[in-house]
Amino acid sequence: MAHTPRNQSEKATLAARRAWCYLVLVLISFLCLFFFYVLVINSTRTHFEIQKGFSLLPGKSLITNFQNVLADANIPVITGIRNSLIVSACSAAFSALTAYGIYAYNFKFKKAAFAIILLIMTMPTQVSALGFLQLITKMGLKNSFIPLILPSIAAPTVFFFMKQYLDASLP
Q: What is the pLDDT along the chain (171 residues), one digit of tens a residue?
């Protein structure tokens, strides 16, 4: 429970602390958002305009720059977006199905399965990355989506949030 100020000096101290906190939060927000603003502004300028120096005003080359990026064969933007959508949709769908299966069905090792999936969250990905890469290479699945989608059947983070949502929402 919050402490209620009793006299005028406590109210003034509380107001000063709040003002200081809001000032710090505004400053941090500005620092975080400023670089995104510069990114957007520079995306509207030509190479020559960017090399001339910093500007807060947008340029007139946004559409030209966008067309150049999409037409560049060295950077397959559309293919990358498509691949990301496929992998993320499959990951979310399979994790949601896993969470629903553990939520809805009663089976012998239900609590153990839940605990094992949560324990996987504690292990950094880098620990098992090299072994996983060697396994995928031996199986001949190097240039496919299967190594990206298959481990996400029980992606711990998505699974945990979906399971918590199901526990809170469904009877």
A: 566 667 888 888 899 999 999 999 999 999 999 999 999 999 999 989 989 988 888 889 999 999 998 888 888 989 999 999 999 898 888 888 888 888 888 889 888 888 888 888 888 878 888 888 898 999 998 888 888 888 877 778 888 888 888 888 877
Phi, psi of 124 (to 5 degrees): -65, 145
Q: Which stretches within 72-145 are classed as H helix?
A: 77-104, 110-122, 125-139
Provide the CA 135 distance to its chain's centre, in angstroms: 27
How many angstroms separate the CA atoms of 125 and 20, rounded?
A: 40
Residues 6+ apart with CB under 8 A from 38: 54
* Token pair for 57: 């005003």
Two tokens, residue 130 = 């090299």
Nearby residues of 148 by Cβ (< 8 Å), 6 or more positions away? 87, 91
pTM of the shown model: 0.63
Query: d(Cα 71, Cα 96) in Å, to the nearest integer?
Result: 37
